[in-house]
């Protein structure tokens, strides 16, 4: 058999292709380590996106209330409920919109009585609506003085 048999062994092995058990095991172990490292980052990304979407919707509702006040020439109010679990947009006594805060969050503001009043001219007092998860602030919607523009900031 000698040299000729040895060449035949390597030639047939090259044609077969495939993976050895060691190669497959190392590949799976590497994929597992990479997944374990990346998973917390993906979870945080989802939480941050959830906060951004909620605060974006809140900012859109404040802008909508501002347009309603100007169009109808009537005062409009964005009112936070006492427990911070929802807010309501009102024109007079009529409810225009009511939105729940995501379950693990709570909304607080520096507006008296939790009431952001938008005048018929569209002007409103500047202030901040803060979003909390437990005792930690995780984001806020800042309403600029005079212009009433809303800026959303989300903590990482």
From TrEMBL:
Record keywords: Cell inner membrane, Cell membrane, Membrane, Methylation, Transmembrane, Transmembrane helix
Protein's UniProt keywords contain Cell inner membrane: yes
Compartments it resides in: Cell inner membrane
Transmembrane segments: 21-43
Chain ranges of the General secretion pathway GspH domain: 57-146
Membrane-topology descriptor: Single-pass membrane protein
GO BP of this protein: protein secretion by the type II secretion system
Record's keyword annotation contains Cytoplasm: no
Protein name: General secretion pathway GspH domain-containing protein
Main location: membrane
GO cellular component: plasma membrane; type II protein secretion system complex
């Amino acid at each position: 058999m000698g040299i000729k048999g040895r060449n035949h062994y390597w030639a047939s092995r090259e044609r077969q292709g495939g993976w050895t058990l060691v190669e497959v095991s190392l590949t799976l172990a590497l994929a597992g380590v990479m997944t374990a490292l990346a998973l917390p980052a993906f979870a945080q990304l989802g939480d941050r996106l959830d906060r951004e979407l909620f605060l974006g919707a809140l900012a859109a509702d404040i802008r909508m209330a501002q347009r309603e006040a100007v169009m109808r020439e009537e005062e409009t109010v964005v009112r936070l409920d006492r427990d911070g679990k929802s807010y309501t947009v009102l024109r007079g006594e009529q409810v225009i919109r009511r939105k729940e805060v995501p379950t693990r969050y709570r909304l607080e503001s520096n507006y008296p009585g939790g009431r952001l009043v938008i005048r018929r001219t569209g002007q409103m007092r500047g202030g901040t609506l803060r979003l909390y998860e437990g005792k930690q602030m995780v984001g806020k919607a800042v309403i600029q003085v005079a212009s009433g523009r809303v800026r959303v900031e989300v903590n990482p």
